[in-house]
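Justification of computing resources. Each target in the renewal requires a structure prediction run like the one illustrated here; the chain below, 121 residues long, is used simply to show the kind of job we budget for.
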Amino acid sequence: MTKTVDDYIAGLSGVPADVAKRLHAALMAAGGLTDAVKWGHPIYEAGGPICLLKGAKDHVTFGFWRGGEMLDLDPRLEKGGGKGDMAYIRLRATYDVDDAQVTRLVAKAIELNRLKGDPMK
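Resulting structure tokens:
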């Protein structure tokens, strides 16, 4: 059972492992977030869940709970098919992780949680 984000990332291999390491570092550098493994993958929180990363065979999914309200911030954001406002970016290489863009997205997501409350409640 995965206990920490570092354990989760260590369990990945190949390009997704490299992308996840890079993304995790950018998220933590953005500031204001705590990380934990919930629902089987890393979740980053500030006043409730903000975003997640999830390793796949050839990419890492970088998802935002309120991503549907952030589509104008990054053209790579795609609306999820399920309930809610989830939107995500598929990161296929470490160069897809832009620290400044991660910081902008995180700041907006934190602002939305501050204004609207925990998206899980």
